């Protein structure tokens, strides 16, 4: 299998604060990798760097064989192939669901309105949102909004999906419907890099789990190994804290 | 429209655009800082007095130019406030789809910004409409000037009242129109979906 993403020696600082201190990570195609770690460990920043929303200081990121961190790379073209879903949904509040989903295909991929809308309706139907096409985002529940955000990213037919804490802003009873969508995506073979606080979900869906601590990948392995027999003391402490907070594995 | 251009110039990021940003800032400082009436007299009486053959002599022309210059400065600041009030995550979302900076501005940032600044925008528009009275000092005949002429001729202030009514006849419907636009937008957003 070929590598979908290769990250080498990635460093990123915000002013004096070094958030990422040398990340090395590779995803093969169709692989689902979960990033876990406490807040501020650099998980979200890593995803934003891969989407080129944050310029990196050192290292390189190779997507589908192309170094996307080279100067002169067309960032808009790179982003087309990478779907990013945010913790806070970030739907466009002045557009209805259908327009949210079709904006990218129409304005970036140059699809006709009819084509884009047909594809969008099909995607919305697949994720149980067909009856919401005409609604504006503030009429939807958090879970529905996040599912629309996922559909919006999927409408660009990306090769890679980055999911950033997509359930963290949701009421507990709405988490399930969003996780269900991600499971469905994984079953279609989508390559995904997911940051999450839902350990049970990570164990269930991930091919590989990486534990981030202070801007480095401290430990990585299969879910079974990380969650039942972590090698690193810090990983164990982190998991203990999560378990004490009431989550089950 | 000019004001929008100016606001966009000012929001350009990065050191490359510093000269353009600087020009935009100086422009705004200048034309907001000088009293409108001074700009009008400087241009309206000064420009024709230069005696250059290619400079238009029409006071109406210079009056309009002066008002456009001044209000471009005001309105650009309103737009800028609107653009900056849209949360950066909106831009991140649009860019993450692969939209260019310009398309992000056009489809995502700007429509939200305009909705928010519609009332202050109308404020400036009414101000502009009323300030046309100032052009009268150049001798260009607008409503206020005309009423003064009539007053002087008839010793009757009815013409002044007429001028006031004329101004109101333009501004009041505009205000109602803006209110209606805002209300319609709110209704549309809250209405349940009609499609599907």
Task: Jot down its keywords.
heterodimer, A: 249 residues, alpha/beta, Rossmann fold, 4-stranded antiparallel beta sheet, 10 strands, 37% helix, globular, B: 196 residues, mainly alpha, MetI-like fold, 2 domains, 8 helices, flat, disordered C terminus
Describe the structure.
The complex is a heterodimer of chains A (249) and B (196). With 249 residues, chain A is α/β, with parallel strands linked by helices. Chain A has one domain (3-244): 3-Layer(aba) Sandwich (Rossmann fold), CATH 3.40.50. Chain A has helices at residues 43-50, 75-80, 97-107, 113-126, 142-154, 172-187, 199-205, 223-228, 233-244, and strands at 3-14, 17-28, 32-36, 58-63, 66-67, 82-85, 160-164, 191-195, 208-213, 216-221. The radius of gyration of chain A is 18 Å and the shape is globular. The two termini of chain A are 30 Å apart. Chain B is 78% helix and 0% strand. Chain B has eight helices and no strands. Chain B is flat and about 65 Å long. The A-B interface holds A 48, 51, 53, 76-77, 79-80, 82-84, 86, 88, 90-94, 96-98, 103-104, 107-108, 130-136, 138-139, 152-153, 156 and B 89-90, 92-100, 103, 107-108, 111-112, 115, 188-196.
Architecture blueprint of SSEs:
The complex is a heterodimer of chains A (249) and B (196).
Chain A: E1 3-14, E2 17-28, E3 32-36, H1 43-50, E4 58-63, E5 66-67, H2 75-80, E6 82-85, H3 97-107, H4 113-126, H5 142-154, E7 160-164, H6 172-187, E8 191-195, H7 199-205, E9 208-213, E10 216-221, H8 223-228, H9 233-244
Parallel strand pairs in A: 3-8, 3-9, 6-7, 7-8
Antiparallel strand pairs in A: 1-2, 1-4, 4-5, 9-10
Helix pairs in contact in A: 3-4, 3-5, 5-6
Chain B: H1 2-11, H2 18-33, H3 36-49, H4 59-85, H5 88-96, H6 101-131, H7 143-154, H8 158-190
Helix pairs in contact in B: 1-2, 1-4, 2-4, 3-4, 4-6, 5-6, 6-8, 7-8
DSSP helical segment count of chain A: 9
The neighbouring-strand order within the major sheet of chain A is 6-7-8-3-9-10
Portion of residues in helices of chain A?
25-40%
CATH architecture label name of chain A: 3-Layer(aba) Sandwich
Give the mean pLDDT of chain B: 76
- Strand-residue proportion of chain B: under 5%
Q: So, CATH architecture of the largest domain in chain B? A: Orthogonal Bundle
Tertiary shape of chain B: flat
User: Quaternary state, please?
Assistant: heterodimer
Query: What is the name of the CATH topology of the largest domain in chain B?
Result: MetI-like fold
The end-to-end distance of chain A, rounded to whole angstroms, is 30 Å
């Amino acid at each position: 299998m070929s590598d979908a993403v290769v990250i080498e020696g990635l460093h990123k600082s915000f002013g004096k604060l070094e958030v990422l201190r040398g990340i090395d990570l590779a995803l093969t195609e169709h692989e689902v990798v979960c990033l876990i770690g406490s807040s501020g460990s650099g998980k979200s920043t890593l995803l934003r760097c891969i989407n080129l929303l944050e310029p990196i200081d050192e290292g390189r990121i190779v997507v589908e064989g192309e170094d996307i961190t080279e100067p002169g790379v067309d960032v808009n073209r790179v982003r087309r192939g990478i779907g990013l879903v945010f913790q806070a949904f970030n739907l466009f509040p002045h557009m209805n669901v259908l327009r949210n989903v079709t904006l990218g295909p129409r304005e970036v991929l140059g699809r006709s309105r009819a084509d884009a809308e047909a594809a969008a309706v099909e995607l919305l139907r697949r994720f149980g949102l067909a009856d919401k096409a005409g609604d504006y985002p503030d009429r939807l529940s958090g879970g529905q909004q996040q599912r629309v955000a996922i559909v919006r990213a999927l409408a660009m037919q990306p090769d890679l999906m980055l999911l950033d804490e997509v359930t963290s802003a949701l009421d507990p009873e709405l988490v399930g419907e969003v996780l269900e969508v991600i499971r469905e995506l994984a079953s279609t073979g989508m390559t995904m890099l997911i940051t999450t606080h839902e350990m049970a979900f990570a164990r269930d869906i991930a091919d590989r789990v990486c534990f981030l601590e202070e801007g480095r990948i401290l430990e990585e392995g299969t879910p079974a190994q990380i969650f039942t027999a972590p090698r690193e003391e810090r990983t164990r402490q982190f998991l203990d804290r999560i378990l004490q907070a009431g989550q089950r594995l | 429209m000019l004001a929008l251009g100016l606001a966009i110039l000012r929001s350009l990021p990065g050191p490359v655009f510093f000269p353009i940003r600087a020009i935009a800032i100086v422009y705004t400082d200048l034309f907001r800082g000088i009293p409108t009436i001074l700009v009008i007299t400087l241009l309206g009486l000064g420009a024709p007095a230069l005696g250059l053959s290619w400079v238009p002599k029409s006071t109406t022309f210079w009056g309009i130019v002066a008002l456009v210059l001044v209000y471009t400065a005001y309105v650009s600041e309103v737009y800028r406030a609107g653009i900056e009030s849209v949360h950066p995550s909106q831009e991140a979302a649009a860019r993450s789809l692969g939209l260019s900076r310009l398309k992000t501005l056009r489809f995502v940032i700007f429509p939200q910004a305009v909705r928010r600044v519609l009332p202050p925008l109308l404020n400036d528009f009414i101000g502009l409409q009323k300030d046309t009275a100032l052009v009268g000092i150049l001798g260009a005949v607008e409503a206020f000037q005309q009423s003064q002429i009539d007053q002087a001729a008839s010793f009757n202030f009815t013409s002044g009242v007429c001028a006031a009514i004329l101004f109101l006849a333009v501004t009041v419907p505009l205000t109602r129109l803006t209110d209606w636009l805002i209300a319609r937008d709110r209704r549309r957003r809250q209405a349940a979906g009609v499609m599907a």
